[in-house]
Amino acid sequence: MFSQRWWGFIPSPHPGRSMNGNIDTAGDTNPLIDLILSIFETRFVCPLLWCRVAHIPRYVQCPSELFRGRRPTHQCRQIMTTNNNFPSVTNDDQDLVDSNGSGRPNKDEGPSGDPGIVKPDPFNLDSLRLSQDFEAMVGGEKVLTTVHVRKPGKEQWIRVHPDDKFRIDVLTLELKEESEIYLVSADLMYLLGTESTLRPMTLYATITRNGDVFLWPIACPGVDGKDNEWHRSAREAAHIGMKRWIRVTANRSLGAYETSITKATLPDPTWPTQTLQDLVRIAFRKRFIDTVDHPVLRRLRGEI
Known about the structure:
Blueprint: H1 2-6, H2 31-53, H3 74-82, H4 91-95, H5 125-128, H6 134-138, E1 148-149, E2 158-160, E3 167-175, E4 180-184, E5 198-208, E6 213-219, H7 229-240, E7 246-251, E8 256-261, H8 276-283, E9 288-289, H9 295-300
Parallel strand pairs: 1-6, 4-9
Antiparallel strand pairs: 2-5, 3-4, 3-5, 5-6, 7-8
Helix pairs in contact: 2-3
């Protein structure tokens, strides 16, 4: 009995006898006290022991020595089976125990701590790799908001739009120190005829391999028929670029542009849906002179 092993310190109702039976074995213990101690052991001690076990981490096996070699009582078995805090430890659960023996679930477990729900690796390459039709999946249309007015870069492969509707002769004002070109209204041609910075130019719609659209300005021949070799070679390059991918580089010793044609078979460019009027509007929206009182003209006259 539990009382015969643990409760030896309780005075025996029979003088000269010990409750543990080790000192005095002459007689039996009081049956009433044995019955009371047995009830106390069954109703209070074992549940109290398992309440103490409730503070043990979830994945740590409850030590069997708590029962001191005895089989659990009915109340203990009921607590073991109904309390969710004490599941038996399996091999899978043991793998999830922290290496420090804390018994806490690893971070890879689900939000509820259930070892059956494993958090996926956020750096899985299969989930990070883009598909071949990424642009089609994203959808949308590229909005053209910037169009530069410039010469082609010496390292760029370009094409010139072959349609006559995508080139136009206009009057421009070029400020070389600021590297800016202004579009001038044709109505001001006779009013500004003495301005040396005015120059008629042809604007060619041009595109790079990357799909960047810009306007290539090339000076027109003079009214007297004289032509600059730089301008003439640039116009020839532009006409070649209407059919082939080309590179245009300046040869200063030659005093002209050199045109290189690619030997590779490259597909034709995909031109934007905007018209030449749209491209001109975007390119010169902040650089358009339509009055003689424009700040640029007043600055050239020394008024400001």
